[in-house]
Amino acid sequence: MIAVTGATGQLGRHVITALLERTKAETIVAAVRRPEAAKDLAALGVAVREADYDRPETLAAAFAGVETVLLISSSEVGKRVPQHQAVIDAAKAAGVTRIVYTSLLGAPQSVLMLGEEHRATEAALAASGLEVVLLRNGWYLENYESAVGMALEHGAVLGAAQEGRVSAASRKDYAEAAAVVLTRDDIAPGTVYELAGDVGFTMSGLAAEIAAQSGKEVAYVDMPQEVYAAKLKEFGLPEGLAEMLADSDAGLAKGGLYGDSGDLAKLIGRPTTPLADFVAATLKA
Asked: Which positions fall inside the NmrA-like domain (predicted)?
């Protein structure tokens, strides 16, 4: 059996959908914090089990009879290391053979603040004695949905990325890659995939694409990291999230979100979602 943690999250639901296209529902476990939020998954025949990162006692039971766990990185930045360690410990206790982990593109050398917790988790996995496969995910195109809306309203895309290029792909792309890895039996333990979109783009390029498709004037306005963080706080984002996003933009400027391995397209057997398609879908939404 295959267990997917965070199965009701934005990435997790895509993974479940992709798995259902490749294997039987009865072989899939949706490990979720709130089972009542996964009634739709249960209706598809997927086993729904409570699995709360902050309540380790729920985890071992959730992984009973499971051979492979997809550990989708927790969304709670700052709490990820103990939460992920709880999953690793429970997986070992339950007799799980393999953990597939959604890490960060270029995690070992990443200049992003986000890299710290991913590096710590990768170290914990290496020390676990379990078979491990790493999916080092790049940025999601969906991270720019709010930027599209702001661009239409204010005529500007804001950031601190300078002319750095980001190799973003859709959540669906990354989820399909995860499903492929989870359902293949020929992937050696220790395999690392650096996953990223096929074509990188700058924030100026994002602004130009929004302008071209919307018919409105849109420009990219670059600013220092601390100024961008302050702007995000003005827009109502929590301080921690604002600081993390500004740090990620600064890391983008240094090449921290660019990748050209081609691993993602190879795994899913098709090109990754282009920026133009993402912008078009977002404008229609």
From this structure: 2-248
